[in-house]
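subagent[fold] <- orchestrator: predict structure for attached chain, return tokens only, no commentary.
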Amino acid sequence: MENAPTTITLDGTTYNVADFSEPVRQAIAIYMSFQSDLQKQQLEVLKTQAALQNIGAQIAAAAKKELEEKQAKSEDTAETAPAA
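subagent[fold] -> orchestrator:
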């Protein structure tokens, strides 16, 4: 068992895992495996959220720049257009 706990605490009392039967030790190992998987998945969610925030900021900056350029071009065109 990788990173298996040597003790567990139940109702405030700490027990040695080795003192329990094989089925209980296996259940503890399964629990720890699920807990490890959950932590890895939570880290992946945080990475994805950070990437989305970064990409969102890049999109917003690019869109604002494009809109400003279009607005400036529109104003330039309006100023240089012949009066009717």
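orchestrator: received. Logging for downstream: Residues 7-76 form one domain. The radius of gyration is 30 Å.
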